Amino acid sequence: MTSQTGDAGVPTLDDPATDPFDVARQAAAALRERTGVERHDVALVLGSGWGAAADLLGEEVASVPSHELPGFSAPAVAGHVATTRSIRLPDGRHALVLGSRTHLYEGRGVRRVVHGVRTAAAAGATTVVLTNGCGGLDRSWRPGTPVLIRDHLNLTATSPLEGATFVDLTDLYSQRLRDVAHAVDPSLPEGVYAQFRGPHYETPAEVTMAGRLGADLVGMSTTLEAIAARHAGLEVLGISLVTNLAAGISDEALSHEEVLEAGREAGPRISRLLADIVGRI
């Protein structure tokens, strides 16, 4: 029989009897101990292409291998960072950079997908910035274009909320934070992000369906984290990096290497953008 506790005796998220918020609180306590930072004010989840932004935010206080914190797993995807970083911003606040994102397609359960944002809330954060690399449906958004998420379509057929937990998502992606982003770069477009389960890329017919439903962007992350963040009381800013045109929009075949390459090329520009936005939040 598989043990339901971790190496340190912490109940795992795999046990249905475990309260996932208890594990998040224990992870936040471990962060305080490992980083020496009592409170983190803002959290960032850095998806494909966004990782270099952490180096521009401010002075790193500490870096912790994510899987050493209760409830976290080592990343399963090439190009995803496996550390959680505490960074002191120029104004004295502290940012928590969650570099080890768990995706739904990894099969580790929804609780693990959203554990990072729940830990951020338990660590004191009031704002979370969710980023991703994604496919674009608008031909004018060339690879390397950052797009603010104004709303989403959750096409995963699941939710991070358990039981009779009712949360209003009307203004999930904060207009206030989008206004801050527009103050940094007035040219930033906005769009609706659709999350599919993955790990396969969408078919042209699925992309057409998503477009008819109102989507401008398609990917495999973010919406479940955003829902959990709202439930935990966090204000949410979502930013996508268009790494490729979605299936059927372009004649080119899709590949993960293409996603990584687009992220590398856009990295310096979008990293500076994100650091400037966080500095104004």
Automatic annotation (TrEMBL):
Domain Nucleoside phosphorylase: 42-278
Binding site for phosphate: 48, 80, 101-103, 133, 221
Keywords, comma-separated and alphabetical: Glycosyltransferase, Transferase
A single MF term (Gene Ontology): purine-nucleoside phosphorylase activity
Transmembrane segments: none
A Pfam match: PNP_UDP_1
Statement: the UniProt record of this protein carries the keyword Transferase: yes
EC number annotated for this UniProt entry: 2.4.2.1
Catalytic activity: a purine 2'-deoxy-D-ribonucleoside + phosphate = a purine nucleobase + 2-deoxy-alpha-D-ribose 1-phosphate
An example Gene Ontology biological process: nucleoside metabolic process
Residues binding a purine D-ribonucleoside: 202, 244
Family membership noted in the UniProt record: Belongs to the PNP/MTAP phosphorylase family.
The protein's role, per its UniProt record: The purine nucleoside phosphorylases catalyze the phosphorolytic breakdown of the N-glycosidic bond in the beta-(deoxy)ribonucleoside molecules, with the formation of the corresponding free purine bases and pentose-1-phosphate. Cleaves guanosine, inosine, 2'-deoxyguanosine and 2'-deoxyinosine.
Assembly mode: Homotrimer.
Protein name: Purine nucleoside phosphorylase
Species, as recorded: Cellulomonas carbonis T26
